[in-house]
Design goal:
Largest sheet: 2 strands, antiparallel
Number of helices: 5
Oligomer: single chain
GO molecular function, one term: DNA-binding transcription factor activity
Number of domains: 2
Keywords: Nucleus
Protein name: CRC domain-containing protein
Main location: nucleus
Pfam families: TCR
């Protein structure tokens, strides 16, 4: 759960708000506005954020099943590539982060690394430097 202090839990870095849920009593946040009783403020803030970025509340991590589904769609739409159905059905080893992180000094070991926070390894989509992500370091770094 979140532990926001000054944002009133109405920013995307609040775990509860970003996931589309209200804060619970188990949260350690202060001066929270992300509650059922402030539903009008929460929905207005969500709409404002979505007007600027329509994918703001979309999941940032692709599960192995989604990776396979995307690969199968690509293979079936491209007649030049042949992959056997058995090979296409093999799921990826781990989930992948859609955009990747941009860590410069944290070595992908802090909670503000999007991959580390999502408990997935860094991938080629990441622009991190000196990656030491415990869930899977970026190859070739």
């Amino acid at each position: 759960r979140c532990s926001c202090k000054k944002s009133k839990c109405l920013k995307l870095y609040c775990e509860c708000f970003a996931s589309g849920s209200y804060c619970l009593d188990s949260c350690a946040c202060g001066n929270c506005s992300n509650r059922q009783e402030h539903e009008d403020v929460v929905s207005e803030t969500r709409q404002l954020i979505q007007s600027r970025n329509p994918l703001a509340f979309a999941p940032r991590v692709i599960s192995p099943a989604e990776v396979v589904r995307v690969c199968q769609a690509f293979v079936s739409s491209n007649s030049l590539i042949f992959v056997s159905p058995a090979a296409a059905a093999i799921p990826a080893a781990t989930s992948k982060h859609k955009r990747g992180c941009n860590c410069k000094k944290s070595l992908c070991l802090k909670k503000y690394c999007e991959c580390f926070q999502s408990e997935v390894g860094c991938s080629d989509a990441c622009k991190c430097r000196g990656c030491k992500n415990t869930f899977g370091a970026k190859q070739g770094d």
